Amino acid sequence: MKNYGRLTLPTDLDVIDETIALKESLGADAIRDCDGTQMPEELLNLDAKVYATYYTTRKDNEWALANPEEIQQEYLITDRYTARETSLTIELMKGFHTEQLKPNFIDDPKEWWEVIDRTTGDIVPVDKWDYSEEKGTVTIQTMPYHVYTVSFLAFLIWDPVHMYNFITNDWKDAPHQLTYDVRQPKTQAYVKEKLKKFCEEHPHVDVIRFTTFFHQFTLTFDDRKREKFVEWFGYSASVSPYILRKFEKWAGYKFRPEFIVDQGYHNSLFRVPSKEFKDFIDFQQQEVCHLAKELVDIVHSYGKEAMMFLGDHWIGTEPYGPYFETIGLDAVVGSVGDGVTMRMISDIKGVKYTEGRLLPYFFPDVFCEGGDPIGEAHTNWLKARRAILRSPLDRIGYGGYLKLALEWPGFIDTIRHVIDEFRDIHETIQGTQAYVSPFKVAILNCWGANRRWMNNQVHHAIWYREIYSYVGIIECLSGMPIDIDFINFEDVKNGALDQYKVVINAGAQYTSWSGAQNWIDEDVVTRVRQWVDQGGGFIGVGDPTAYQHQGQFFQLSDVLGVDKEIGFTLSHDKYNEVNSKHFLLEDIEDTIDFGEGMDGIYAHGENYQILSQYHGYAQLVTNTYGKGRSVYLAGLPYSPQNCRLLLRTIYWAAGKESEMKKFYVSNVNTEVAAFEKVGKIAVINNTTDSLSTDLYIQGQKVETLDLEPMELRWVEI
């Protein structure tokens, strides 16, 4: 049936009849429960797959309380405190929420904690500090006016996601759910038996949706129940003495808390990862994937499917890591906040199907006075749709309280349009792939393929002022006709550049995304220079190749044709003039949005052309370098116009301008995806306004299309 399937709906005890009616109306073929809802018995015999949200690490406080030593743990670091005398007492939990975290005094603090003199960077010997379990403090013998921190293990006595949902949804009576460590032998055996029992007692459940497996991403609250530290990619809460002893045996060296807390940065994804942290990630992925496979095998033994939610306790199951496919999952589901997060899910290999939870979630923080769930649904679909045309999800669905969606006027009709269009895409393209550039483009950073579609993000699809100018690049790319890879600096040294026509390096100075000290690696810079000199294209955004060294800040300033003024070259005169006539700007009518932009960028050399500048500093510069080309952009937030600017930038950097209009539309607010095998072209309007656009095929204009707001129009090739 045309209007049936590929859709999962949430349900609850208070919407039984409504669920049945909506299932028929929207053509849903699966129903699910959520955190805070229950699956009604009356719906188990519907003609639909039944998903059961399954928690391996929580919803069993009795077990957690009976085994307090096997509750999940997290490495924390105190604030920095200045000693004014020869002794300093630090209160461990100051600034943390005592309902979420509790210092671990069960395992010897002298073995697993670390006190550091942050003035010198020296570890304070264990005989120079003592702790008080009763007071929750550490007292240190100090040097006056030196600064000190304490890194310590703490038990997660309230599951962070349950705490988040509890606060967001204003739950009153639900008990705080403790979170236990499935990696430890006693709990591991218990959890396996519990899973078997669940499968036996729920014969009507078709899909076990693990949420997720064992280790929560880092989500730490402060003493006012506000988020204190969030790292969706963080490993700080994946530790315990049991795990760390295994790591030491595996790695062959002693573990330090500093490998995790990292001076207080908690190994943010923006940090250039240390060897020790990369070792720990690799170890955790091996162990987690191995154990996850055992649980998946149990599910399969009962004839059920195993699905993983890409969120919550996903740490160690990284879908682009080297061990993920060994788990044997049937599916992955995740939240689709935009095109990037859509691609993060849909590009996953090693599963039978992928599924996306579209926004908004049916939560009271959106479905409330002043909320705009219809507007959020439109924005979400416009971003997701252009990426779906490049790498389709197999299924979509929604989450939260269905009653809220049903009571919001016009909302169901809004998502009905989304669902029908999603099915129409699948029916039309018939499993074929859209046309992409005849050359490959690489994103170069410290993480490479292991963190595909994760660039410059703190918590996926969350807006931050400091990064939207960089996240916009991969948001644009998520729906563009570009063959894209993600590579790291080791790949460069191993000869990977030969596969690519264009390389993009984008991010703030000294971050993992720009590359920091990797740009003073002789092998890296000489290989990149040679590759561009022989015809490669290099695109830098923000602080590309940035590292102060040998009289320059951008280490490939010769390639880029620009450098950055950081105060050392103010005595050097700079004569920069704008010439905005260029291939890059031929479609661009409105003022270019460079986001936060970048101060201090000035052009130099003999082969540059400044296309845009602000207050005397450059924002958009092209350069030629031997047979190759480069482009510098001060920033590139997502917008339809910036997608077009990036498309033109890539084709120009590749020296392939003449090939750009093989399938092309003139209006920057529209895009095109050509499916040559089925003879169809999708033309999409990425705005909520009506507009016209000219369609080009093989460089020739074939027709003018008048598109309705948000329209997807299929055109015969």
Walk me through this protein's architecture.
This protein is an alpha/beta fold and 717 residues long. Among the domains are: 440-655, Rossmann fold (3-Layer(aba) Sandwich); 663-716, Golgi alpha-mannosidase II (Immunoglobulin-like, Sandwich). The strands form nine sheets. Strands 1-2-3-13-16-17-18-19 form an eight-stranded parallel beta barrel, surrounded by four helices. The radius of gyration is 27 Å and the shape is globular. The mean pLDDT is 95. It is an enzyme of class 2 (transferase). GO terms for molecular function: 1,3-beta-galactosyl-N-acetylhexosamine phosphorylase activity. Its EC number is 2.4.1.211. InterPro entries: Class_I_gatase-like, Glyco_hydro_b, Ig-like_fold, Lact_bio_phlase-like_N, Lacto-N-biose_phosphorylase, LBP_C, LBP_M.
Please summarize what this structure is.
26% of the residues lie in helices and 25% in strands. The protein contains 17 helices and 36 strands.
